[in-house]
Amino acid sequence: xxxxxxxxxxxxxxxxxxxxxxxxxxxxxxxxxxxxxxxxxxxxxxxxxxxxxxxxxxxxxxxxxxxxxxxxxxxxxxxxxxxxxxxxxxxxxxxxxxxxxxxxxxxxxxxxxxxxxxxxxxxxxxxxxxxxxxxxxxxxxxxxxxxxxxxxxxxxxxxxxxxxxxxxxxxxxxxxxxxxxxxxxxxxxxxxxxxxxxxxxxxxxxxxxxxxxxxxxxxxxxxxxxxxxxxxxxxxxxxxxxxxxxxxxxxxxxxxxxxxxxxxxxxxxxxxxxxxxxxxxxxxxxxxxxxxxxxxxxxxxxxxxxxxxxxxxxxxxxxxxxxxxxxxxxxxxxxxxxxxxxxxxxxxxxxxxxxxxxxxxxxxxxxxxxxxxxxxxxxxxxxxxxxxxxxxxxxxxxxxxxxxxxxxxxxxxxxxxxxxxxxxxxxxxxxxxxxxxxxxxxxxxxxxxxxxxxxx
Length: 456
Known about the structure:
By secondary structure, the chain is mainly alpha-helical.
């Protein structure tokens, strides 16, 4: 590299320029750049050497270098190019709700310790130990049961479960805070609070893993997870310090304690909602698939992840909060992976006709009963087959009540438009390799002969 390279400044000493007596001597200039991405580099030094001199010029100050190193403990390597655009707004709101959580935890822990008897002469060590053990034991058992019933559904509804997890944590803290008000029911209340927080631990940890994978653009999920841990540690320390100060100020004043706790809880719920709303997930679950397919059927184009994020329902289905403008929730009518032994004689006879005429080339069978579409997946069905079966079922559900021959019209639509639909999804940035759904444990194998049609 020749000495003619551009720079941010000239060397401070005259020795940086070769003298006239050595102008013909060989020389080299090397620029030092720092950064983990070719598009995010900053020059830190220039070295110039000839036969008799070596000149080093550093860019910036040592304080700039120190600040950069401190910042690297909290942001992923290669930021912002190594993470998705929704990483920063999510982390900001997530850190704010984390601070709120730890402030309130000081208030609830203070009330819990008071109810156990800390500071009272009549309290015994064995009594307090047993109460704490029973509280923790209930939480551990609740975590196992929650994983058993909902573990396979956390990936498919990461945004919803993230919101639910923090709401359950709020409920657990509330239980701790009210426990001193009913001494006779203290054990029951704190166990319910521990049970509520156990759901938070399982759902929050599982959804955090799913979100980390979403943020990672350069296979850097481990780095993002480590930096998120650093950010959470800072939020914890700030929250604990503010919580200790608030606990000291409100000590002995129940009105101030409850006002502070409820105000922070409302802010916590709002911050969590904003954090989840910032996310634009590119994976396909049942609801996002339904929104995308219905929009494509009307406009022959697909929505971007950001547009779908503004339309999808992030609260649980049983709540009354529904975003305005949401499409009809056809995905609630689809039952994937139906158990074959639940089929009736009439169901089997219907399948004997449709299996050979409409579903001969695919690894699934569809049935419609009173607006509900049941999907029977073949034992050798791949993730692509399962995605296709779900989209086909959505088409069938959409045509219910509109078409005379549901299976014929839905099959023709799939043959004409499905490939174009998937191609446009990939072009828009959607991950179409699999459908995030509940665990499909039931599959089937069917066979037919020309003489007599039967399904095994």
